[in-house]
Automatic annotation (TrEMBL):
This is Protein-methionine-sulfoxide reductase catalytic subunit MsrP. Belongs to the MsrP family. It catalyses: L-methionyl-[protein] + a quinone + H2O = L-methionyl-(R)-S-oxide-[protein] + a quinol; L-methionyl-[protein] + a quinone + H2O = L-methionyl-(S)-S-oxide-[protein] + a quinol. Mo-molybdopterin binds at residues 78, 81-82, 136, 171, 219, 224, 235-237. It holds the Pfam family Oxidored_molyb. The keyword Signal applies. It comes from the Bacteria. It comes from Luteimonas marina. The lineage of its organism: Bacteria, Pseudomonadati, Pseudomonadota, Gammaproteobacteria, Lysobacterales. Keywords: Metal-binding, Molybdenum, Oxidoreductase, Signal. Binds 1 Mo-molybdopterin (Mo-MPT) cofactor per subunit. Its EC number is 1.8.5.-. Its cofactor is Mo-molybdopterin.
Amino acid sequence: MSLRNVLAIPSSAVTDETVYRGRRRLLGALATSTLLPLAGCADAEVPPSKTVVTPEQAKSGFRTDEALTRLEDVTGYNNFYEFGTDKADPARAKKTLRTSPWNIAVSGECAKPGNLSFEDLLKGLAPEERIYRLRCVEGWSMVIPWLGVPLADVLRRFEPTSKAKYVAFTTLADPAQMPGLRFRSIDWPYREGLRIDEAMHPLAFLATGLYGKPLPQQNGAPLRLVVPWKYGFKSIKSIVEIRFTEKQPKTAWHQLQPKEYGFYSNVNPEVDHPRWSQKTERRIAGTGNRLFADRIPTQKFNGYGEQVAGLYAGMDLEKWY
Ligand SMILES: Nc1nc2c(c(=O)[nH]1)N[C@H]1C(S)=C(S)[C@@H](COP(=O)(O)O)O[C@H]1N2
Ligand SMILES: [Mo]
């Protein structure tokens, strides 16, 4: 079974429409101001902890019985600012984003850097299914059946050295394919990063498909990160570069508004966003005719605490938000 050609899973569940535009408002405000806050406050480094999770514990996080978000909502209500800031804009990526051929450059603190095709990057790895909750920092969430491979299996191929304390990821930034790059909403290219132990955690995933099919463009084809215990913006789309670094990499949302978007950005109902509460979320799933179901409580680490809390032992999560 190839990664671009996979099993089909029945869809279920629901919905309709309203929009949560917190960050669009922020971007509007920033566009009219001349100075963007680029200070790096929470940038100091924390020594990586040891991953403490058994294979059984890890597996119990690989799927959930919660109602899946409908395919049309997973592919019609998106954040992919390279294609515009409206939730409906990314669906238009189909027309312009060319996902084959696709190359990924791997560099930095590793013994075997290289520039690989999508196919070579994933050669020999069998696609797995993961049914994960995705919690956007804006306060909505989905349940998505992904296909892909554990991020660790891919990273290990490059033999990261002991200096590789972090992994940085970069999205394609091609104005010819991405009309949203005209708007200087964030400092392109979109960049994200993880601490190396987070990246090697069995729940960290590189998705190449969803609902049994290759990844649609709007969801970050051909290859995107999925880090289910962190706010959705950490799950960077359409990756063209992976870099092992010794220092915490600069990440796009954190650079844009460091007080609002931390490097860690673990889902945490106990730490509110400066402009809204994070205690609850609107799940886009269910059996009604509204896009959003009723609010449900947000869980710490998005419900994956049993698997990932050990990564943050001893860290003050209000400071390291
Ligand atoms: N390159 C890139 N990656 C991105 C984004 C983006 O704008 N550009 N948006 C992020 C945000 S805020 C969320 S919530 C998720 C949404 O993923 P989905 O549209 O597949 O549900 O993608 C994340 N990855
Ligand atoms: Mo998000």
